Amino acid sequence: MKVAFRADGGENIGMGHIQRCLALAQQLKKKKGTGAIFIFQKNKIVKEKIEKEGFKGIELKKRISLKEDLGETSKIIKERNIDILITDSYKFNQDYLVEIKKKTPFLISIDDLGKFPFPSDIVINQNVYAQELNCQSLNGKTKFLLGPNYALLREEFINVKERGIKERVQNILITLGGADIFNLTPKLLKALDKTEKNFNITVIIGPFFKNLSEIKKMIKKMKKKVNLVINSSSISKLMLSSDLAISGGGTTLYELAATGTPALSFCLAENQLRTIEGMKKEGMIINSGWGNKFGEEKFRQKLSALCNNFNLRRRMSQKGQKLVDGKGVQRVTNLIL
Length: 337
What we know:
Elements: E1 3-7, H1 16-32, E2 36-41, H2 44-52, E3 56-60, H3 66-79, E4 84-88, H4 94-101, E5 106-110, E6 122-125, E7 143-146, E8 171-175, H5 184-194, E9 200-205, H6 212-221, E10 226-230, H7 235-240, E11 244-247, H8 252-258, E12 263-267, H9 273-281, E13 285-290, H10 296-308, H11 310-323, H12 328-336
């Protein structure tokens, strides 16, 4: 069985699409010994990540039209005798998927938006709001895997034990995803340093952060202890050792839920709005608004309220682990096989 993934990552879109495809690729490899190739628009960091995970990558042009993309990807499918193609990108429309379905025996689409009826054999939407989208099949044969039960998280999140919540917040984690597009990390550090409460801070630096030097300068000025983590190999351990997190609104929220880590979440892109609202509704996170409209005083008020409310943090933790058990990638893999 030959599997290919068609997904992109980069400064503007982060690494979420690549990360969840890699999680699925690793599980397919583990269960079936199936290798996979990744087809992606040229990007050095994406290439390094794919190869580090032990997979082969085929680069498309950095700037490529949908028509060119379709032609190149179809050619690769034919030349490599691909049995299963898995797509994960917001740019692929219905026409693209209809045409690509003609070239491959089995088409799987990882999707967050549900904008059109799908020609795909399987559609995976791992989001908390997936059931509300009224997802439709173009041919009446599509199998839909909807909701956090199918969250494509890395293996490190599969067997996380029920966590205990401490009365006092001692460690805070800042994790904004692949890129800090609103230069939010230095503002958060400044606000946290002004907080009277005594806690340590861990900051995860994503591969597309352009403000690392500014972050380091800020840390030097701070009274509080800050641990800077670049290219962490085990994010789950950092989450489990943190009493609460300050996060973006992407896939990281599902990882935080799986580890039972209460979170204040900032919206960093339009496509994160529904996830944040959905998780707020479920009682798992505090919505801190848009990252580009950061208000220090308002943020510190929300942070203090969460730090001071042990029962709320415990409820958030329990609800998160109940909703996301980390085994979604296993469920998806079994269904594919």
